[in-house]
Amino acid sequence: MNEEAPKQSWWRRLSSGLKRTSSSLGTAVADLVTKRKLDRAMLEDIEDVLLRADLGTEVAARISQAVGHGRYDKSISADEVKAVVATEVEKVLAPVAKPLIIEAAKKPFVVLVVGVNGSGKTTTIGKLAAKFSAEGRKVMLAAGDTFRAAAIEQLKVWGERTKSPVIAGAQGSDSASLAFNALSAARDEKRDVLLIDTAGRLQNKAELMNELEKVVRVIRKVDDTAPHAVLLVLDATVGQNALSQVDAFHRTAGVTGLVMTKLDGTARGGILVALSEKYKLPVHFIGVGEGIDDLAPFTAHDFAKAIAGIEV
């Protein structure tokens, strides 16, 4: 029995976190299918609803095609449409729903965390530190977002909370040399995982992207296989803008996986589907709230059901 309890509570958090997306989808679909038989115009309307949820043009077109398959001139229920949405969304997400594997042979396993300011990067690092510590791993944090005093302080708080040492410099210090020092220290102390925060560089600021490249170069001087994972933290509320962020950070830092936060704050949670369709990058974690347990491993089946508004 006990094993079921956390899963259920996560499902509840996930479905309520995606409520804005699922209810805007569900309400619009229900309005469309009531008192009408399925025709070309209805399918176009359904496609528009899916586009407004930021599912992306390819996925929206595929879903509306699947809804129409064998159903022309027949009545269709909102639940039938939701079932098709869930099935098609799961097909897109299943290949990218991959856990972040911490390889024990790589010590420390270096995780570089990138993303624009406000995406929830530092909080995500704190939550990951808590998760890895709870698994019995020895974690170290590096406050590489040296531009913001608040980010350095925030990381120190997470360090205390998770009993993990934090390597930090003064505000404005060089983030590449900080990363170098942190990796050297983590290696000396035989830490299992090193989580490195970086500045929230806007993707159109070339000099900041150059600095990120420098951080990667310097890390490789200590360990030429590092960073072992480059996680891009994306804020779901930015919608389509997330696509250009993936573009820029992938080119600069070689993103290996995504973490999507703030899914509880948007009606456009479908952006995760559009990103997965376009970039095929692994999605490791999603966040549906501020709590330490609101960041959880990503599962395609649960997400697809929650976004379609299907009760489990």
Structure description:
By secondary structure, the protein is an alpha/beta fold. It has two domains: 4-93, SRP54, nucleotide-binding domain (Four Helix Bundle (Hemerythrin (Met), subunit A), Up-down Bundle), CATH 1.20.120; 109-300, Rossmann fold. 51% of the residues lie in helices and 12% in strands. It has twelve helices and eight strands. It has helices spanning 4-17, 19-33, 40-52, 57-68, 78-93, 121-134, 149-162, 175-188, 206-222, 241-253, 271-279, 300-308; strands at residues 109-114, 139-142, 166-167, 193-197, 229-235, 257-261, 283-287, 295-297. Strand 7 (283-287) and strand 8 form a beta hairpin.
Q: What is the helix fraction of residues, given as a range?
A: 40-55%
Distance between the termini: 17 Å
The CATH C-level class name of the largest domain: Alpha Beta
Strand content is: 5-15%
Number of domains: 2
User: Can you tell me the CATH topology of the largest domain?
Assistant: Rossmann fold
Largest sheet at a glance? 8 strands, mixed
Cα Rg: 21 Å
Features:
about 300 residues; alpha/beta; eight-stranded mixed sheet; Four Helix Bundle (Hemerythrin (Met), subunit A); 2 domains; Rossmann fold
List the helices and strands and how they pair.
Layout: H1 4-17, H2 19-33, H3 40-52, H4 57-68, H5 78-93, E1 109-114, H6 121-134, E2 139-142, H7 149-162, E3 166-167, H8 175-188, E4 193-197, H9 206-222, E5 229-235, H10 241-253, E6 257-261, H11 271-279, E7 283-287, E8 295-297, H12 300-308
Parallel strand pairs: 1-4, 1-5, 2-3, 2-4, 5-6, 6-7
Antiparallel strand pairs: 7-8
